[in-house]
Design goal:
It is built from 7 helices and no strands.
Length: 211
């Protein structure tokens, strides 16, 4: 009997080491280029009013959303980098699902940046490469420490986003809705990592990550 993909369900294909390297490189390249990327969830706050902001508030919102966009580039790259070297297939699947949600965040931030008549950072490709390398390095330490890295990273991101919510103009309801939804997702990612058995990140590394 054959499965839907034309494979043998009794004797599934066993990939060679070279096959796995090629598959992982393809995964990284597709994520970097966002090949086939689609938005899976509607943009939070899209139906809210978007009143004209004064110059200072507009610049502040644009700066925050540009920083958040770069952060989501890093988050997606981090998850994909960890997924390509994850030892457990369930952990790999969970990391890729989280990366998909970070992809939604990218779409949300890009739409808000366009509304604010500005653009993302031109250094995003460098952020992606560096974060993917960090993610792969974390995965080499084992799945539990890799998940601990996710937990610590996301907890710091939540604090970072909370700070943005405190400083965004009250009238900028669209930016606030996006940041609030992102914050909820990141908190959920941290909790999911905890539930999957994340190991505590050593204190010196936590301090480095906080810089």
């Amino acid at each position: 009997p054959m499965d839907e993909a034309g494979g043998d369900p009794v004797n599934p294909r066993r990939y060679s080491a070279l096959d796995r390297v090629c598959l992982n490189l393809d995964l990284l390249l597709r994520a970097a280029a966002r090949t086939g990327a689609t938005q899976h969830r509607p943009t939070p706050g899209a139906a809210l009013p978007d009143p004209a902001l004064d110059g200072a508030d507009r610049r502040r919102s644009a700066g925050f959303m540009r920083v958040n966009h770069a952060g989501e580039v890093c988050a997606q790259a981090l998850y994909v980098g960890q997924a390509v070297l994850a030892r457990d297939e369930d952990t790999r699947a969970a990391l890729l699902a989280a990366a998909e949600e970070e992809g939604d965040h990218l779409f949300w931030c890009e739409q808000r940046l366009a509304e604010l008549e500005t653009r993302p950072s031109r250094l995003d490709p460098l952020w992606f490469l560096g974060s993917a390398a960090i993610g792969a390095a974390a995965a080499l330490a084992g799945d539990r420490l890799s998940l601990g890295f996710v937990e610590e990273t996301e907890e710091q991101v939540v604090r970072h986003l909370d700070g943005h919510l405190e400083r965004l103009a009250p009238d900028d309801q669209r930016s606030r809705a996006i940041v609030s939804a992102m914050c909820a997702d990141e908190a959920r990612h941290a909790e999911a990592a905890r539930q999957r058995g994340a190991a505590p990140v050593p204190a010196p590394l936590r301090r480095v990550m906080a810089w």
